[in-house]
Specification:
Strands 1, 2, 3, 4, 5, 6, 7, 8 and 9 form a nine-stranded mixed beta sheet that branches. The chain is of the alpha/beta class. The protein has a single domain, classed as Phosphatidylinositol (PI) phosphodiesterase (TIM Barrel). 32% of the residues lie in helices and 14% in strands. The chain crosses the membrane at residues 12-32. This is Putative glycerophosphoryl diester phosphodiesterase 1.
Length: 324
């Protein structure tokens, strides 16, 4: 009986040794296929005014706490997107909301008061009415003593139509700023008429993205729910090299602090995701308040030779590091 136990014990030990060896060599970095080239640079809201992130919440009026302006661009406007692409952005992110007349306005906040001279919410106005507002009206870097962009943002709120027409070949990340399934339905209907779907990615609330993905399954789409499902599935079985279906044809925004726990990070993981048409973007902080890689010091925290996507609020600082 003791001999049988010893034999079983040895078999278990050898099984575990083989299993751990398989996991290690199947996910270690030095055996991964070598990757070349520079990272994919994603400019958040174009080239926008930055602000102090300390103590920020979902209710914070970020236009009232901007840093001292270094350039004239305002977020989610065509000039800011054009500047971002000129600096070297590969993708520009923009926010959309449905208007009273069924168009998509490119604007971030739920309330117009935070940034503009308007009142109420986007859905209370037609697109032509929204274009009359000054999107730079309430920006201040000195607690309201001065408003450096007041009067300079009249007519700068674009529609999604305006953006797509102005940038017919560029890649865009479209953010649905709601959790209304109808928004996903309408965006899917709108985009289904276009011939450039491979250049577009959509993310937003769980409900609109679920509807959007059902209507246009060929377009990359992401929500908190798809991100969680995909990464948990990958953590459960990705060590085998098998890629779960929830990881395919989507986009993952991953805080860098958590990325090292992913099987095969960085190169093997990136190769696996790339093979199933999934784009990886690393973000700063906890991934909740759009923190990006905005300084040289931030970039130094990335793995050596990293070639995945990078979320940045300062494409003017980051793109030259790679373009040079």
């Amino acid at each position: 009986m003791n001999r049988i136990k010893k034999i079983l014990s040895r078999k278990i030990v050898w099984f575990l040794i083989i299993l751990f060896a398989f996991i290690y060599f199947n996910n270690c970095a030095f055996l991964a296929k070598h990757r070349t080239g520079k990272p994919l640079l994603l400019a958040h809201r174009g080239l926008a005014q930055t602000f102090n992130m300390e103590g920020i919440t979902n209710e914070t009026n970020t236009a009232q706490r901007i840093n001292k302006p270094e350039y004239p661009y305002l977020e989610n406007t065509i000039p800011s997107m054009e500047a971002a692409f000129q600096y070297g952005a590969d993708i520009v992110e923009l926010d959309i909301q449905l208007t009273k007349d069924g168009q998509f306005a490119v604007f971030h906040d739920w309330t117009l008061e935070y940034r503009t001279n308007g009142k109420g919410v986007i859905k209370d106005y037609t697109m032509s009415e929204l274009k009359q507002f000054d999107v730079g009206y309430n920006y201040t870097a000195d607690d309201g003593k001065t408003f450096p962009f007041r009067g300079k943002g009249v007519g700068l709120m674009p529609s999604l139509d305006d953006v797509l027409n102005y940038f017919p070949e560029e890649s865009l990340l479209i953010h649905i700023k709601s959790d209304d399934p109808q928004d996903g339905e309408q965006l899917a209907q709108y985009l289904s008429k276009l011939k450039r779907l491979n250049q577009l990615t959509v993310y937003g609330g769980d409900k609109p993205i679920a509807v959007f993905h059902k209507r246009l399954p060929g377009v990359r789409a992401m929500s908190a729910a798809t991100l969680k499902k995909g990464l948990l599935s990958y953590m459960a079985i990705g060590w085998t090299g098998y890629i779960p279906s929830s990881c395919k044809n989507t986009e993952f925004h991953i805080p860098l602090k958590y990325a090292p726990i992913l099987w095969g990070w960085p190169n093997r993981f990136l190769n696996r995701m790339e093979s199933v048409n999934t784009r990886i973007i690393v973000v700063g902080g906890e991934g909740e308040f759009s923190e990006g890689f905005d300084t040289v010091e931030d970039i130094r925290n990335l793995p050596s030779g990293y070639t995945g996507g990078i979320w940045t609020n300062r494409i003017d600082r980051i793109a030259p590091l790679y373009n040079n």
